[in-house]
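Subgroup meeting minutes
Present: P.N., E.W., G.H.
Scribe: E.W.

1. P.N. recapped why we're keeping a running log of single-chain structure predictions: easier to compare across weeks, and new members can see raw inputs and outputs side by side.
2. G.H. added today's entry (186 aa).
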Amino acid sequence: MHLRWFALLALTGLAACGGSSSPAAPSATTTTTTTTTAAVQTPVYVVLFTHIEDNTPAGGIGEAVTRTNYLRIRQGVIDMAALAQRYNVKWVLQPDWKFLLAALAYEDGSLTSSTGGVNVLRYLRNSMGVAIDAHSHENGGYNYTDVAYLLDQLGVGGTTVIGGHIWDPSLPQFQNWDRFRSTQSG
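Output recorded in log:
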């Protein structure tokens, strides 16, 4: 449900901006009017960032309800990637630890047959152009380093981006940002 709202908002914003323009090929369009004055239209580039939070999928890893929830979310992210690709919107997916553990537990031959023989995250990155970064609320015993490790285990690691981190020096809970300037243990 949340994924549909993100997609709707992104596409509404894109439509309001006058269509899609490739972020890989920025250019300005010049049109000449009958009075020979030139008007330059500046392109608008859209990047959609979404998170899969640390309580998703619901249930404990290994439970039937969790697998069912994972399958629903899995199909939703595939659909979202197709939608982003269709409208030429760059999508950055930032999953937290629980979705990654579910992918490690549930991606098997029956599932990967629909994604070219690879897990859903490798499919999203390699075939659909989705960027995948670590996201962590640092709950459940998993910090950003742990999430990055899980991404490595799934074959989509290597990014140096920590997604969803808020830095606001006026708020005490966000004043520990500088700790990310050094190596973090997982």
